[in-house]
Every structure is written in structure tokens, then in C-alpha cells.
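Ops channel
N.P.: pipeline sanity check, posting one input/output pair.
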């Protein structure tokens, strides 16, 4: 018997799992599932919030993925895996067959400390049969924002959950790559920029950033996201088009990654995608449009609507209803399997594809030169914008999904 698509099971059962304490975050709905933001909202200029969402019950309590869905998966291979898309699913959906090289470093930049990062990552990788990635074998390393292996910042559970997601997605797409985690002291862009610069100095080929904030005052931090030859991926946001453009996704030196809803489908690809309703997009009010960005859509000439930097450039799965399995902190002292969504899934996933390719990187221009190596996402929307491509997916470029999603690694 074929394994059912996990969103169908999730909608039918809400995982049938125990729930942790209710979150104090607002509860959102995607499809038939509830979810909350992992990180608290930040309203102050110069600060960022992570873009991870966690599937919950209607009260906001985390639904802990304790394999209760096994009764729906009679074949043993499916029964031993947690609910949510895993590496095999994601690599199939995006036609990524190579596993990368140990000479390639993926850096994850997040705020605050995560004491169990290495041990939680080991659970994810061993569960899915990925090679061990530890400090002992040289695959994994953790640093503070000054580049020291020690004196880490205090733990924040929400940001630890974000970090777990990022580490797991990078592992899923590039299992042979080295991974370094650089922990910023706080959510201020001053600290995040310091961590970003340190990640580049440590030799990263890819730096993944799953956070964002308003553009106001961001110019003084933008240089931290300008590292020639390094692929810097940034999540586009998780509050829809109405939230406005997000920094650092609007930096002209990064690849801004939007969100999709990913489901299995008939046909040669075996998968189908639409724009995620809560993914970010927008026209920058601060940053000029780089020469390589071609936002032609629906027959319109370039720059007819947005003469500034437009987000997103590309996209990947982000809808919590079609979310991914992650082994992450349930609390400060305990970890568990959970389901995650948000463009925080998409940014490290695309970062992993850049790492698999391992080739030359010219800021975010590479996908624009290789559109044939992308799956165009032509339906869905993330808000109200008069039907324009700012928030409405269509053939060619659009704000919510950019040029589309990976179809192998050649576009990156």
C-alpha cells in the first residue's frame, strides 16, 4: 500500500499526538492545520524576527510528532519516519540527486544560543540515514558571533527551534557538506551582521538567514550581506504581501527566497506547487534593483511597476500544511519531532541546493541566468495587490515565488 500524502493524514488526525504547553503567539490556519510563529514579533527598527512556523492545535500548543501516525502507514519503511516531508521527499520534489562535498561549507546564522544543536542534529540525520555530522568528525562546528567556539549567548527556545529547522534543511539538501552555526548575541541587526561577517570569514560558500525585519535604518547593516562569491540566502517573510518588503531579503546582494505549498501530484515531476498565502514579497523602498534582476511577468516590460529591488528571487516549500519534519527543542530542556513551515524552511533548503552545486556564485544572479533549471510556479497569491505580480503568482517572474523553485542544482 502506498504511503498517503502526509498533509492528508495531518488534516485527518492532527497527528494524534500529545501537545506541549500552549504558545502565547497568535494562532494561524493553513489548509486544515493550525500553526504559530516560533519567534515573537519585533516592532523596533534594527531588530529581526525569525520566520519559522510550527504546527499546533487550535490553542497554539505544539503538536509533538511522536510517530502516532504509524497506524496510517502499514509498511515498515514509512512507519519508522516522523510525519512531515523528510530529505527523500524534498530531494525528489526538487530533483536534487547529488549530495555535495565536504569541501563546501554551509553557514547557518541565527540569534541566541542552542546548547543541544549538535545532538538534535544527530537525531535528525540518523533518523533519515544521513551521514553523521559532528564536531568530532569535522563536519559540524559552532561559533559565537566573534568566531569563538565557546562563550555562547543564552538560549532562546523559539530561536533554537528556528536554528534546528535551518540545520535540518541544510542537511537534507546537502548531506555531505560541512555545516557551521554562528550564533548572534541578540536579534539586533548589529549582532546578526557581526555573525554574518564572521560566517563569511570562516570560509562559508553558503550563508543561510531565516529572519527579517523592516527596511528602516537597514542601510548601515547591508554591507554584512555583501560577500562576493558567497551565496547568501534570505527568507522573504511569513506575514504575506501586506507586511511589506523585508530586510535583508531586499539587499541587492542576496537571494531572496519566497514560499510555496508543495503537494504530490500526477505527472512526470510527481509534485505540484502554488504560492504560499503567507509568504513574503514586495518592492523595496530603500534598495535599487540590481542589473541582474529581471522581473518580467505577464507580458509586462521590466520595471513597469517596481523600479527598486523586488523580492523574492526564487522559492521553495513553506506552507505549514505541507511542512517538513524537524527535530527541535520543545522547551529549554527537551527536544521532540515537530512539523515546521515558513520561508525559514525555504531559505536553508535553497542554500543547500547552492551548496550541492558548489559552483561560482554572483550574488543572486545565478537563477536569472538559468531559468530553465527552475519549476515555474504559476498559481496562488499572498495578498491583495490589484492582481499584479507583486502578490499574484503567474507565468514567469512574480513576487511570491520569484522565478520558481529548484529543478536540480544547475540554476544555483
Amino acid at each position: 500500500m502506498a504511503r498517503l500524502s502526509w498533509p492528508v493524514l495531518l488534516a485527518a488526525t492532527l497527528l494524534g499526538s500529545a501537545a506541549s504547553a500552549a504558545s502565547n503567539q497568535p494562532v494561524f490556519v493553513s489548509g486544515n492545520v493550525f500553526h504559530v510563529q516560533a519567534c515573537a514579533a519585533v516592532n523596533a527598527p534594527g531588530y529581526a524576527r525569525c520566520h519559522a512556523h510550527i504546527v499546533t492545535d487550535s490553542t497554539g500548543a505544539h503538536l509533538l510528532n511522536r510517530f502516532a501516525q504509524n497506524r496510517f502507514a502499514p509498511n515498515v519503511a514509512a512507519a519508522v519516519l516522523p510525519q512531515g516531508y523528510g530529505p527523500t521527499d524534498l530531494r525528489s520534489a526538487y530533483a536534487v540527486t547529488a549530495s555535495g562535498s565536504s569541501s563546501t561549507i554551509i553557514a547557518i546564522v541565527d540569534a541566541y544560543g542552542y546548547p543541544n544543536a549538535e545532538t538534535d542534529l544527530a537525531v535528525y540525520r540518523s533518523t533519515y540515514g544521513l551521514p553523521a555530522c559532528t564536531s568530532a568528525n569535522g563536519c559540524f562546528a559552532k561559533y559565537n558571533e566573534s568566531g569563538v567556539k565557546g562563550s555562547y549567548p543564552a538560549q532562546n527556545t523559539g530561536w533554537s527551534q528556528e536554528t534546528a529547522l535551518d540545520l535540518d534543511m541544510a542537511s537534507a539538501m546537502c548531506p555531505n557538506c560541512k555545516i557551521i552555526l554562528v550564533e548572534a548575541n541578540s536579534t539586533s541587526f548589529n549582532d546578526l551582521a557581526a555573525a554574518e561577517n564572521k560566517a563569511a570569514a570562516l570560509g562559508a560558500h553558503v550563508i543561510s538567514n531565516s529572519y527579517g525585519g523592516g527596511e528602516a535604518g537597514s542601510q548601515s547593516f547591508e554591507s554584512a550581506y555583501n560577500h562576493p562569491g558567497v551565496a547568501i540566502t534570505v527568507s522573504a517573510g511569513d506575514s504575506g504581501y501586506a507586511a511589506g518588503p523585508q530586510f535583508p531579503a531586499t539587499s541587492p546582494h542576496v537571494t531572496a527566497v519566497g514560499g510555496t505549498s508543495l503537494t504530490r501530484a500526477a505527472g512526470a515531476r510527481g509534485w505540484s506547487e502554488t504560492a504560499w498565502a503567507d509568504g513574503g514579497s514586495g518592492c523595496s523602498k530603500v534598495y535599487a534593483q540590481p542589473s541582474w534582476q529581471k522581473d518580467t511577468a505577464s507580458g509586462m516590460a521590466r520595471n513597469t511597476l517596481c523600479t527598486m529591488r523586488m523580492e523574492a528571487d526564487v522559492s521553495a516549500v513553506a506552507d505549514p500544511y505541507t511542512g517538513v519534519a524537524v527535530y527541535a527543542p520543545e522547551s529549554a530542556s527537551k527536544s521532540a519531532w515537530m512539523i515546521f513551515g515558513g520561508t525559514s524552511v525555504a531559505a536553508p533548503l535553497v542554500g543547500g541546493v547552492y551548496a550541492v552545486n558548489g559552483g561560482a556564485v554572483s550574488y543572486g544572479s545565478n537563477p536569472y541566468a538559468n531559468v530553465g533549471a527552475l519549476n515555474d510556479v504559476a498559481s496562488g497569491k499572498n495578498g491583495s495587490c490589484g492582481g499584479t505580480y507583486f502578490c499574484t503568482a503567474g507565468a514567469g517572474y512574480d513576487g511570491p515565488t520569484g522565478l520558481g523553485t529548484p529543478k536540480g542544482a544547475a540554476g544555483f
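N.P.: looks fine end to end. The two ends are 37 Å apart (CA to CA).
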